[in-house]
Amino acid sequence: MGKAIVKLIISTYAIEEYVVEVPCEKDDVEELIIANAWKKLKEDEGGSLPYGHRTAEIIKRTD
Q1: Ramachandran angles phi, psi of 22, nearest 5°
Q2: What are the helix and strand counts (H, E) for the chain?
Q3: If you average pLDDT over residues 13-41, what whole number do you get?
Q4: pLDDT tens, position by position, 28-60
């Protein structure tokens, strides 16, 4: 099992950037990894995130 480092951005009045590390398998598609990163961020932030346009980018992936 590998890990992926994902950069998550929420564009509110100010741009909020987060970096999250999530476990992933070698053959996981990017959409699954990003979905898991948003879920982990929501848990880490206490169950809610600010409203705004959301973007995500996988920075690094290790197998």
Answers
A1: -130, 150
A2: 1, 3
A3: 95
A4: 999 999 999 999 999 999 999 989 999 999 999
Answer whether 21's CB lies under 8 Å from 58's CB: no
The predicted structure's pLDDT at residue 1: 87
Instruction: Retrieve residue 44's tokens.
Output: 């880490």
Between β-strands 2-11 and 53-62, what pairing exists: parallel, antiparallel or unpaired? antiparallel
Residue owning tokens 């992936």: 61
DSSP category for residue 47: S
Let me know: does 53 contact 6? Beta carbons within 8 Å.
no
Token pair 């879920």 in the structure block, residue: 39
Distance CA 51, CA 27 (A): 31
Which of 57, 46, 63, 54 is closest to 12 using CA atoms?
54
